[in-house]
Amino acid sequence: NLPLSVKIDLPNGISYEQPTGLFINGEFVKSRQNKTFEVLSPSTEEEITHVYEGREDDVNLAVDAAHKAFYSGKWSTIHPNQRAKAIYKLAELIENDLETVASIESLDNGKAIASARGDVSLVVSYLKSVAGYADKIDGRVIDTGNNYFTYTKREPLGVVGQIIPWNFPLLMWAWKVGPALAAGNTIVLKTAESTPLSALYVSKYVKEAGIPDGVLNIVSGFGKIVGNAITGHPKIKKIAFTGSTATGKAIMKSSADTLKKVTLELGGKSPNIVFNDADLKSTIQNILIGISYNSGEVCCAGTRLYVQEGIYDELLAELKTAIEAVKVGNPFEEDTFQGAQTSQNQLDKILSYVKIGKDEGARVVTGGKRLGDKGYFIQPTVFADVEETFRIVKEEIFGPVITVSKFSTVDEIVQKANDSDYGLAAGIHTTNLNTAIEVSNRLEAGTIWVNTYNDFDPQTPFGGFKHSGIGREMGAEALDNYTQVKAVRIKT
Ligand code: NAD
After folding, report:
1. pLDDT tens column, 116-171
2. Does the annotation count 444 as an active-site position?
3. How far is 105 from 261, CA to CA, in rounded Å?
4. Residue 50, strand partner residues
5. Beta strands in 118-235, from DSSP E residues, in sequence order
6. SUPFAM superfamilies from the entry (predicted)?
């Protein structure tokens, strides 16, 4: 008997109404089987609320609504300017409510409030940017001789399924729904089971923005149930997923029977490389952002730090001081840099990797311990004296844990950096432009940051090489994932 909306008092004094239902065909509804699940605050381990839990029959309803909305033509075939206007309006509605949205994100995910504001600002700027692409999706006229007139157009795919993770709940929602909407598709999206609140909250703005009923549907629930129902549904034409590489592979397999298009944004173990001539002060800041930002729960976190031998000792000493000064704790305190890990599972996973690192013979330079006994807080952790074969160097930990090792030449660092199944991102710190360009060219990664890290921009595409994914989000490239080319050949 959970009401469809509950009042929540946030720790910073803001009170708001949190929708708890599934968002199907323009309204919040109870799940068919009336099931709910608990949502916890990672910083207090206390219950925030329950929300309705979708099952296969709810996914079917959502897909029917999305299918009907697509074929009604009220979104897919209207003038793209109108889609642009609605997406832009949605961005403005979120922007006007930024403090509440950011606070919901902090409460639900445990991330520092300053970080959450950054996420929501990027949500807004991304939606505004992608709105501008809606009327720039064009085709070609092809010269196939005078007896023919041949042209191509890029059409939407139909109903798309989107499955998002818990580390950037609303940002991942925006990166998924933005381009899908701009291209004229309709959507069934599943949020992560631990962080359903922000996407449900902003759904209240969908109608006001001018997006027709059924175009954007949200089904909260679990991967094995809702996720599976989405990946197996015959009317869904494409799956866009962000999360672990293991789940990405499972999704690709289960999408094969209905031959869905699949784009995946998966894990990483990104190298962050510091040359002798780097600016030490800004490099230390970038290393911190690479590892502690968002509690290290970032797919492109700079978790393998490689430092050239001439600067190694000085950098390691400075890094230790800087990391020990990072404020970890209550996400609602303005100067907190690192909030809570998102779940008990994540905390346990990170602590188990700290033990693995010690057992492998790595030296803990600083950190490695849980902080307090309520809330999932952990010290940012630096391991030195690691070997390339160690599991803590090879495997994605998804927490604020960094390994540090030394290198001497460009050839050596390129080989070490590329010796990974992953290829999501990499960092290079140098004041030598030739080094920056040469190493950028030789690294196998979808994003290279030079003298910066975890630095996102709506117009810049993001996605992985190798096991880090398929397809690109943001930038003009994102639209390619949501359109298909039709060639029209007319005999004159
Ligand atoms: P996950 O990949 O299993 O979950 C991500 C999303 O996929 C969630 O919405 C989940 O419900 C859904 N899902 C799970 N199984 C599914 C299935 N069989 N079919 C369809 N959807 C399914 O991630 P997790 O279990 O929450 O976290 C495990 C590890 O994944 C983390 O420790 C971290 O290493 C990694 N991870 C990476 C990212 C990233 O951005 N690359 C994000 C989250 C987690």
Report:
1. 999 999 999 999 999 999 999 999 999 999 999 999 999 999 999 999 999 999 99
2. no
3. 30
4. 38
5. 141-142, 148-156, 159-163, 186-190, 216-218
6. ALDH-like
Give the Å distances, CA to CA, from 365 to 16, 292, 311, 318, 401: 43, 16, 17, 12, 11
* pLDDT (average), residues 19-33: 98
Q: How far from chain centre, in Å, is Cα 404?
A: 26
Q: How far is 84 from 446, CA to CA, in rounded Å?
A: 28
Closest-CA residue, ligand 1 atom 32, reads: 398
The structure tokens listed for 60 are 């079917």
What number is the ipTM of this complex?
A: 0.95
Which position among 193, 265, 297, 396 bears the catalytic label? Answer: 265
Nearest 5 degrees, angle CA 359-CA 365-CA 370? Answer: 70
How far is the CA of 104 from the CAs of 12, 14, 119, 398, in angstroms?
11, 10, 12, 22
Confidence band (pLDDT; 50, 70, 90) for 432? very high
Q: Whose CA is nearest to atom 34 of ligand 1?
A: 398
Residue corresponding to tokens 């797919």:
299
